[in-house]
Design brief:
30% helix, Dna Ligase, domain 1, 6-stranded antiparallel beta sheet, alpha+beta, binds glycine, binds adenosine monophosphate, 424 residues, single chain, Rossmann fold
Amino acid sequence: MKIMVVGGGGREHAIIKKLKESPECEKIWALPGNGGIAFDAECVGISATDIDGIVEFAKNNPVDFAVVAPDDPLVLGCADRLRELGIPCFGPNANAAIIEGSKVFSKNMMKQFGIPTAKYEVFDNIQEALDYLKTAPIPTVIKADGLALGKGVIIAETREDAQAAVRSMMEDKVFGESGSRVVIEEFLTGPEVSVLSFTDGKTVVPMVSSMDHKRALDGDKGLNTGGMGTVAPNPYYTEDVAKRCMDEIFIPTMNAMNSLGRTFKGCLYFGLMITENGPKVIEYNCRFGDPETQVVLPLLESDLLEIMKAVEDERLSDVEVKFADKSACCVVLASEGYPKKYEKGFEITIGKLAENADYYIAGAKLENGKLLTNGGRVLNVVASANTLKAAIDDAYKASENITFANAYRRSDIGRRALAALQDE
Ligand code: AMP
Ligand code: GLY
């Protein structure tokens, strides 16, 4: 099978490396891919948001199957357009991708169908939002309705900060039209768990759980980033919690989308908080998480291409989705200064890695045969092992064999998960 993968980050590199393990995989194009993905796929210089360009490429090449990995093309209807061409595709149509594309949609859906989530109010009028904040419980959480490159959520510790957040979204339009409507919601506390799932609208199959580390600095300090590392499985996702999530969140969400005429086929990502009152949905994503995918897929023992095809053909219940009974850890190597200002263009040297380790390139370009840093998050180093402790140690060990000037990594990825395991 000849496969087209839309996207060009570490998540896509992990998807591509996994697809290549399938005996059926003959060739992969990555649109646009990146300098590191170029070692594993043919990179085509078409951006992931250039839907016309992607469709044109699919018309002119013998594409048997497409995987649309990032949120923006899904929300823009990339999967719909490919399916209209008769190309089977992994990823939801736009009318289902709205579960991530509009927070107002997903909150209203959860309320309508009784799916546990933070209490909230929706505002499209700035004055009403500011008035509401005069008496709202503090801290509070302000969310832009639409996609905002993962930056549309502000946790306000004071009333002034909350009002400033509303002004920046609704008046200064820092997130463009995404912020013309905002959700103001109850601040919840508890450990967070990411659960990616496969669903074809009939069955929902959760993958191994994971834990992201979003803040830039050790001890979960510093600015929010796209994710500085992950571990899987997440120790807070106990069997009890998993059962409650299945009954109270996963199946009800799939059924809710079906009854709204928005059947979701693809990877549905549940961002969960395990509160005192049970698991609640913090956010849905319509796609694989980044960098969650980088720890989840290395643990997948089944054939990813088989599963993706089964999702598209709505026969997910017929295929096996098996994960190794192991742990994995992903350490992000970023450019010093990320997520603010950073320099790029430094050569990346990749030494020999142990058998249980691998790497995925997120932000690099190939120039005259040299791999150069080309982004904030440059690459992901991943190791899997029988215990979480060994996976963490091995990922950090492997990360020392990959070097570039100005590299920055957190030194405590997985520490909180390890502590939680020891508390059990
Ligand atoms: P993201 O949506 O990925 O930008 O991340 C938002 C982050 O904000 C989540 O991972 C949580 O840590 C936090 N968050 C979002 N909603 C809430 C909430 N209602 N209560 C507490 N924290 C929240
Ligand atoms: N790691 C969080 C996300 O992919 O949105």
